[in-house]
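LAB NOTEBOOK - FOLDING QUEUE
OPERATOR: T.R.
BATCH SIZE: 2
PURPOSE: Compare the predicted structure-token outputs for two unrelated chains run back to back under identical settings.
PRIORITY: normal
REVIEWER: second-year student, initials M.K.

ITEM 1
FIELD SEQUENCE / FIELD STRUCTURE:
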Amino acid sequence: MPANGKHRRKKSTFLTRGLVAAGTGGAVVALPLIGATGAHAAEQAAPAAASGAVVTAAAQVKAQAAPAAQTAAPKTYSVVAGDYLSKIAAEHDVAGGWQRLYADNRQVVGENPSLILPGMKLTLGAKSTAKAAAPKAAAPAAPKAKAKVTQKAAPTGEQTRASRSTERAAAPAAAQSSGSTQTASSGWVTPVAGGISTSYRTAGAMWSSGYHTGADFIASSGTTVRAVGAGTVVSAGWSGAYGNEVVIKHADGNYSQYAHLSSLAVSAGQSVSGGQQIGLSGSTGNSTGPHLHFEIRTSPSYGSDVDPLAYLRQHGVSV
């Protein structure tokens, strides 16, 4: 029994005080901390949401811009002298090559894919909607000159008239010819200025006749090709293995042929003078590369060939 009749005060344990502190002060402290953490997280979430919105908007703009770029207007190309479809397709990276280029522009080019003329407008990489329009060809010779060649049928008279017409045309023809083109005083010229790459009657299995029926002149694509003498164009257009060709009848009854042309500047029935431009060299038809195949024939048809260089020399041309 305690002394002096006093009751002893029961001591609270450390664990109890600790629980009380945790249960009281801890609760007071915990509530502000939780609130602060939530506010801080919200502040961080807002910029993140804004950033996500910007990224989403940028992606939408990019997605909308892609179709617009794909549907941009196709390019248009204007044909110049010396052009041919395979060359244009290669230079402008046309998918599908010259076949695709021709298919897209067939209504402009026409039925002959090897015959394109300066001034034609071709659509690159898309179907052309342009209407077919033939570019302007070279102006026909003066009617007066034509009448002098075709007025009479007598060979002697025809030769005389052709000679007079040639003398009058000699000066303009010389002016048209390049400096290195061989021109005779009679008005006869070489068809191009280049030298010979394959001579007449060169033997070989590549030719159906077993030999070369003409003379090949060195000429890069687009080189001006000239009539060797005065005459009348009997044909101008596509001719199978010869590609685009021109055949001219001369006053002496012989015919000159110019093959593998990339473009034509004359048409059948037109009168021409010696040295007049009749087209541009190329590599159409059965050809291994740009050059001019030149023949002299006794008729307008294949198989009547004679030595073309000897013929030119007979007319005073140094070749």
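ITEM 2
FIELD SEQUENCE / FIELD STRUCTURE:
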Amino acid sequence: MPALDDGGLGKRIAALRKARRMHQSQLARESYLSLPMIKAIEQGKRQPSDTALESIAAALGVDPTRLLATFTGTETRVHAALPRISAALASYDVPIARAQRTAAELHAAVSEAVNWRLAAQYGRIAQYAADLLDDALAHFHAADDKRETAGLLVAAARSADAVAYKYGARDLSARLIELMRWAAPYTEDPLVAASVAYVRTETFFTARAHTAGAQALEAAVDAAPAVTDERTAAARGALHMRAAVIAGRDGDADTAETHLAEAARLSAGTREATYLGTAFGPESVRIHELSVAVGLGQGYVDRAFTVARRWAPSADIPAERRSGFWIELARAQVWGGRFDDAFESLKVARSIAPQHTREHPWARETTATLERVKRADEESLHQFAVWVGAV
């Protein structure tokens, strides 16, 4: 929680809100907080958490340090936590730790971390990731039947990986993915193996090894179980979505289209939901259609606009994926000369998942482009650029 200050945090929030000509109800809506909470914070009766302060700052278009000079922020907290996460991995195959949580408590903590990942709450994950990995490993090594504990270990590592990957600790991310690959066979569940293959694609994106990544995903599709229900359809469909994106990054439009078509076919009878930590369904496929178009480059901007025309992801889609949709749409809108629309898309992305937007390289790159092509007196754009780190 931010430290209390004598300068009137609530008064500064109220002043900036009024300068933006926003009502308290609008600030509450755009920061995803309740109206009573906003009122209590502005009146100095309640101190916002780090996450709440960041959400308010994002809605106001400023960096949190403008509201509270002593605020260290999510980025600082995440980077401070990374060495501890790395240390938890150092002895992953040596049973030396004792669990601090019971089995039931571990289940609940892992489930909560998965929800934080889907909601792009990286600061919360970072705070608990190392201890969660320690406990997951301790339970894994202590179990005679490792199938269930291995699944928990994979889920815990995936949540930690989200933090490492988004905040640029790519070597640590690769180590966490290798931990997932090591643990997955112990689950004896081919669907877990498929989910790990989905996540592993991050390493290929990082290395720009798109052809190799496409081959790895093809092998994962071949190894995935036959479709018998929604879970198996989602597992195969998610791999096809991922394969479409990496084929698009590789400039292979035909292969990308083939994978998208297969993902769409599998989604037709599958309700939109999160399966083993990965969202899949008709809306997720449509989001990936946009991602593929943007990945293929400026020559496919009209296709990107077609996907997004009169449609936007619903609230059923996890925040991280929804914000990604708007970030990628903004990139296409800049290519198409729709600069005002691009800025609006970036603001929507920020309102949905501030931490994800701030750490997304394309959000930063698109904002920097808008700063160059728009007028220098666009104060709100410049404030956004400062917030996202584009200037």
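REVIEWER COMMENT (ITEM 2): The two ends are 28 Å apart (CA to CA).
FOLLOW-UP: none requested
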